[in-house]
Each structure stands twice: as structure tokens, then as C-alpha cells.
Design goal:
By secondary structure, this protein is α/β, with parallel strands linked by helices. It has 2 domains: 123 residues, no CATH class; 121 residues, Roll (Diaminopimelate Epimerase, Chain A, domain 1). Helix 2 packs parallel to helix 3. The longest helix has 33 residues. The N and C termini lie far apart (61 Å). Bound molecules: manganese (II) ion. Manganese (II) ion binds next to loops.
């Protein structure tokens, strides 16, 4: 491996940080911003997983396949699980041993592994052995806000403004814990409520889910309990109902979409496409056992059941 490689020099040259937005990728980014002051002037982005656009002049954290030219990529996801750095696609540095988080790889590169020992211990477990923390409130809270961008922006703002990693980290952990507490206290009851609310006719179950009706806001982060409970409620009904459909209804009573599950009959995708064919949805489709339909014109669960029983299911079996 190259002996003249200085990670701090390389990272201070990049124009942006493009990082995985998971717990590990965000923590790695916060360590970088705290330890390399030049980086606080740069753009920081956490693109969606499906955004595969290549980034030039970027420090790419845990997204190596999207690194463009003049890009430094740091990751720990090759088959050996070693931490490594590539510059313009060329591997120029790697760790001797496997690494459980990219945050640890970054800390090692910067020579600050000991300074962040307590943090890295937590990130290693979250990233590589999540079963060990699945019942901890901070982890439950983190899982609940995984698609929300608010908290990522907030922690980056904190370190950019103060240079203080601990301030951002403490905010993140305490916010996740507060959210986890709400979820742990209320989700189970909400799931039961949705199961009770389901409209059932023979094998078919339709759950009206009122999006935006039961939202808890913690530190500016919205947690929609109805939406969170939707999937576990569907799974509970799937034991003896097929298909099970969640009907997502917004505050203006528009049907924003359907989630369709048909685990035994493998016809969820066909149901969604049939709804489009009949002009009852604008788009739809998915996998054989789980699919979605958008902009649905059927307004009541009973009406949807009627359409399914009379015009869709008989043709699919
Ligand atoms: Mn990772």
C-alpha cells in the first residue's frame, strides 16, 4: 500500500462529502467534520439508496460504487470486511483486520480511535450486530426515523457550527431515545387498534390507515404512529387473511395509496396491476407477495372489497 498517503490531506481537497445515511455513515461524517475543520465548509449529502449518480471531487463514505473521479472512498464492505480507502477507484490503503463500522475506519485513518472509543463501540454493534441492541430505546427510535432527513441535517448543522462532535452525538442519542420511548409505549396499542379497525370479508382484510392523524413530534422530527403500525398490523392479519390491504388515507380523506400483501397466493402484484387496468389506480405493481398502488379512486374499504371480490380475485385464481 502507498506509504505517502495522508488521509487528512486528501479529505481536505474534496468538495463534498457523500455518505450513507445510516447510523454508521452519519457518525463517520460527524467525526470527519469534527476532526478536519476544512470539511465544515463543504457540502454534505446523504443520498437515497437508489440514487446511483457518480460523485466527482467527493469523499464517499460507504458508497464506493458511486465514486467518480478525484473521489476518495472509504468503506468496510468488501468480502474481507476490512476497512479500505480507494482514490479514483484504486485501493491505496486497507486495515489488517475486519472492521465493524466505517466510523471506526474513519477514526483509524484520522488517528482518533481512542478519543472516540465509547462512540465506536456503540456504532460497531449497531452496524454489525444490531440484534444486541434491538430492544434499546435509542435503537428503536433510530429505526423509527430511518427515512426522515431532519435529524441528519440537524447533527451536521451542529458540528458545522460548533466543531463539537459530542454535542451532535448527544443530541442524536437523546432524540432517538425520546422517540424510542414513545414508540415502545404506544406502538403495540396502535397495532392492535389497526387490527381491530380492519374491515374483513371472508379472506379479504382492508385496514384503513389514517396518515397524519396520530403524529408525535420530537425535536422537530415527525413520527407517524399510524404508518409505523401499518406493516406489523398487516403481518398479524396475514395469519389467516389473504390478501391483506392497508388503505392509506390522508387528512383530506384522499386515498393516497394501497399496500397489498398476499403471501400465500402470490398475487399482490397482479391485484395492483388489475386496479390500474380497471382505471381505479393511477399506478401500481411490485413483487408477487407485496405490492403497492397509488392514487386510488376507490374511497371506502367496503367498496374496495367489492371490487376485489367481483372484478379482480375471480380472474386471478
Ligand atoms: Mn457500515
Amino acid at each position: 500500500m502507498s506509504s505517502g498517503f495522508d488521509f487528512r490531506v486528501w479529505t481536505s481537497r474534496v468538495q463534498r462529502i457523500t455518505a450513507d445515511g445510516d447510523f454508521d455513515g452519519v457518525t463517520a461524517t460527524l467525526i470527519l467534520l469534527a476532526e478536519v475543520p476544512e470539511l465544515r465548509e463543504r457540502e454534505v449529502e446523504f443520498p437515497a439508496p437508489f440514487d446511483t449518480k457518480k460523485r466527482d471531487n467527493a469523499l464517499v463514505i460507504e458508497r464506493p460504487e458511486r465514486a467518480g473521479v478525484e473521489a476518495v472512498a472509504v468503506d468496510h464492505h468488501d468480502p474481507s470486511a476490512k476497512g479500505y480507502v480507494t482514490i479514483n477507484g484504486q485501493r491505496i490503503w486497507e486495515t489488517v483486520e475486519p472492521m465493524k463500522s466505517v466510523a471506526r475506519v474513519v477514526a483509524r485513518l484520522l488517528g482518533v480511535e481512542e478519543k472516540y472509543a465509547d462512540v465506536l463501540e456503540i456504532v460497531d454493534v449497531v452496524d454489525s450486530e444490531p440484534k444486541k441492541v434491538e430492544k434499546e430505546l435509542f435503537y428503536i427510535g433510530y429505526r423509527a426515523v430511518i427515512t426522515d432527513q431532519t435529524w441528519r441535517k440537524k447533527v451536521v448543522e451542529i458540528v458545522k457550527a460548533t466543531g463539537d462532535f459530542r454535542e451532535a452525538w448527544n443530541w442524536m442519542i437523546s432524540t432517538f431515545t425520546a422517540i424510542g420511548k414513545v414508540v415502545a409505549e404506544r406502538l403495540e396499542a396502535k397495532v392492535s387498534e389497526l387490527v381491530q379497525r380492519a374491515v374483513i370479508d371472508g379472506d379479504v382484510a382492508v385496514i384503513p390507515v389514517f396518515v397524519g392523524k396520530d403524529v408525535v413530534t420530537v425535536e422537530g422530527i415527525r413520527v407517524d404512529l399510524e404508518q409505523m403500525a401499518s406493516k406489523p398490523a398487516m403481518m398479524r392479519l396475514e395469519h389467516d387473511k389473504d390478501p391483506v390491504i392497508a388503505m392509506n388515507i390522508d387528512v383530506r380523506k384522499n386515498i393516497v395509496g394501497l399496500s397489498i400483501a398476499s403471501p400465500r397466493k402470490n398475487i399482490a402484484d397482479k391485484i395492483a396491476k388489475k386496479l390500474v387496468e380497471l382505471g381505479l389506480a393511477e399506478s401500481g405493481g411490485g413483487r408477487p407477495q407485496i405490492a403497492g398502488a397509488q392514487k386510488v379512486k376507490v374511497t371506502e374499504p367496503t367498496e374496495l372489497i367489492k371490487v376485489l371480490k367481483e372484478r379482480i380475485l375471480p380472474q386471478l385464481q
